Amino acid sequence: MKLLKSVLAAPALAATILASPIASANSIQVGAGFVGYIYYKPLIATWLSSEYSGIVKGPGNWSWSPFHYEAIIIDTRPRTYNEPFQILARDQLNISFEVHAILRPNADKIREVVEEFGGVEWYRRVVQAPLRTFVQKTVETYTSHEANDNRSKIEETVTQYLQEYIKDKPFLFDSLTVGNIQFPAAVTHAVELKVANQQLLEKKKTDMQIAQQEAEIRVIEADGIRRSQEIINKTLSPIYVQHELVKSLSDLAKSSGNVIYFIPTDENGMPRVNPVKEISPIK
Known about the structure:
Elements: H1 2-9, H2 14-19, E1 22-23, E2 28-30, E3 34-40, E4 51-57, E5 60-62, E6 69-75, E7 79-88, E8 94-105, H3 110-116, H4 122-139, H5 144-149, H6 151-166, E9 171-178, H7 185-235, H8 238-254
Antiparallel strand pairs: 1-2, 2-5, 3-4, 3-6, 7-8, 8-9
């Protein structure tokens, strides 16, 4: 009950405690998805302690009574708690990300939630700091890139820590996810530069392969030309060439209108030109 006194005395909770239920002279109403912790609050003998009176699960109400009752309304619906982090990874780089944990109070243990775990402030008072510690000690064992590649493993590890922590507490765990990991701007630029260089390297490798294939094609073509020349050189002997020349001349002689000139040539096939003798003048 000591904690209940502190809960009721906290100014920050006054609006939640008094405004959440729909209060009237006859009853306190509790909506669906909420549970009301009903307590008796003396109006005259204010030195007396407030006393627990009962629980109302919504939708429901606390019926009229001649005594003065009030309620602390606890939201028992699943809620996502977002925790931002900036952690120094094992490679001394700061990485930023968010963890999203979905939890809720156990609707069957609201009296315990109020009297021992801070009432509506249960997450901030009991769960938030341990959750952040679990994430911190898990992520800092990884390098920045390892953390990015092992988010699912980080989620599993932190989930195990959190479930073990709340197993004897009046809270229910639904799920936990690690958001996208953000690297420092310098690291992001370096990664982009590395990707660009890798793409350029791949292009150069492709160009080299194309050039090599073209060179191989030219070698094959040259080899084919060389082989054909060898075959021709072996086949076209001087006697055979002379035979083909005589045959061609014979065919030309048989056709009409053709004039054939014979020009003597030297051993290189060039026309033979004899030097002109000097003619003496006629006397």
